[in-house]
């Protein structure tokens, strides 16, 4: 269900991103992790470049947000991966609602957020969610010039189908959920930082610490995901119903079903 990407640089030194999937039968187009090639071929002589959508076509209107965030000008400061015994969709759902904070994150990030506040919007198949931090209601009558979205809120994007960046004040956490099986997900978690951030040992220690804190909070979500997965496996409930606070989860599942139906 995940989209493997091929990153290339063309004759004009422009960077291009395309799906690393053969147009013919879906086989992997390029198996090498890195290298130098003029064309990518599997069984045919020429890549069907005209029909390979670039990343812009895939992310649509989210591109404007990513430009605002400055994503193209970021680098990976820390990265790790972990396997979680839950369906990939459960793990994504945890990032699309805020009512679990009070319970799951009560000793970590929960105290920094108002209880169960989140707004979301869909952009084609994609979703953007905004979680205000405690500082946002305090802005009161402050002039708009003093509003700073990245300071006063967390932004969560769901790039359909399984990539979920979390935008924080000075960096972006990048989460990728690769389904290994129905009940096992390989999660990749990276701290993306602006290229302008100093590359000093002190800053690296800061990013490493940030990565650790985020992973600790995320493990609280993943434990919940594993619990829900075992709940499903026990067949204790014949079905589950999304509630009023779970509009984004409903939307996500509908889009997945639409994609599967073709
Ligand atoms: Fe969470």
Q: Decide which structural class fits the backbone.
A: alpha+beta
For the secondary structure, the number of strands is 9
Give the topology string: H per helix, E per strand.
EEHHEHHEEHEEEEHH
CATH class of the largest domain: Alpha Beta
How many DSSP H or I helices? 7
* CATH topology assignment of the largest domain: Naphthalene 1,2-dioxygenase Alpha Subunit, Chain A, domain 1
Our measurement of the CA-to-CA distance between the termini, rounded to an integer number of angstroms, reads 13 Å
Q: Low-confidence runs (pLDDT<50, min 5 residues)?
A: 42-49
Task: Give the overall form.
Answer: globular
CATH homologous superfamily title of the largest domain:
Naphthalene 1,2-dioxygenase Alpha Subunit, Chain A, domain 1
Task: Label the CATH architecture of the largest domain.
Answer: Alpha-Beta Complex
Helix content: 25-40%
Bound molecules: fe (ii) ion
Question: From the alpha-carbon coordinates, what is the Rg to the nearest angstrom?
Answer: 20 Å
Provide the spatial order of strands within the biggest beta sheet. 3-9-8-7-6-5-4
What secondary-structure arrangement, pairings included, does this model have?
Blueprint: E1 5-9, E2 15-19, H1 55-59, H2 62-69, E3 74-84, H3 88-93, H4 101-104, E4 119-123, E5 126-132, H5 149-152, E6 153-158, E7 163-167, E8 172-181, E9 184-194, H6 201-234, H7 247-261
Antiparallel strand pairs: 1-2, 3-9, 4-5, 5-6, 6-7, 7-8, 8-9
The protein binds fe (ii) ion.
């Amino acid at each position: 269900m995940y989209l493997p990407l091929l990153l290339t640089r063309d004759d004009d030194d422009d960077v291009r991103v395309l799906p690393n999937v053969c147009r013919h039968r879906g086989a992997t187009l390029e198996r090498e992790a890195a290298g130098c090639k003029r064309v990518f071929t599997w069984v045919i002589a020429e890549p069907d470049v005209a029909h390979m959508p670039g990343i812009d076509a895939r992310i649509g209107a989210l591109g404007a947000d990513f430009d605002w965030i400055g994503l193209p000008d970021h680098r990976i400061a820390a990265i790790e991966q972990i396997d979680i015994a839950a369906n990939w969709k459960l793990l994504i759902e945890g990032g699309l609602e805020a009512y679990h904070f009070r319970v799951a994150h009560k000793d970590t990030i929960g105290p920094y957020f108002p209880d169960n506040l989140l707004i979301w919007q869909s952009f084609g198949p994609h979703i953007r969610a905004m979680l205000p931090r405690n500082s946002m209601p305090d802005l009161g009558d402050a002039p708009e010039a003093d509003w700073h979205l990245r300071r006063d809120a967390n932004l969560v994007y769901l790039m359909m189908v399984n990539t979920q960046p979390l935008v924080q004040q000075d960096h972006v956490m990048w989460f990728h959920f690769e389904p290994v099986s129905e009940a096992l997900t390989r999660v990749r978690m990276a701290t993306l930082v602006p290229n302008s951030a100093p590359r000093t040992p002190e800053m690296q220690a800061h990013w490493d610490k940030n990565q650790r804190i985020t992973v600790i909070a995320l493990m609280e979500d993943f434990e919940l995901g594993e619990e829900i997965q075992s709940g499903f496996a026990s067949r204790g409930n014949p079905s589950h119903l999304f509630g009023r606070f779970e509009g984004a989860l409903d939307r996500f599942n509908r889009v997945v079903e639409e994609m599967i139906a073709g």
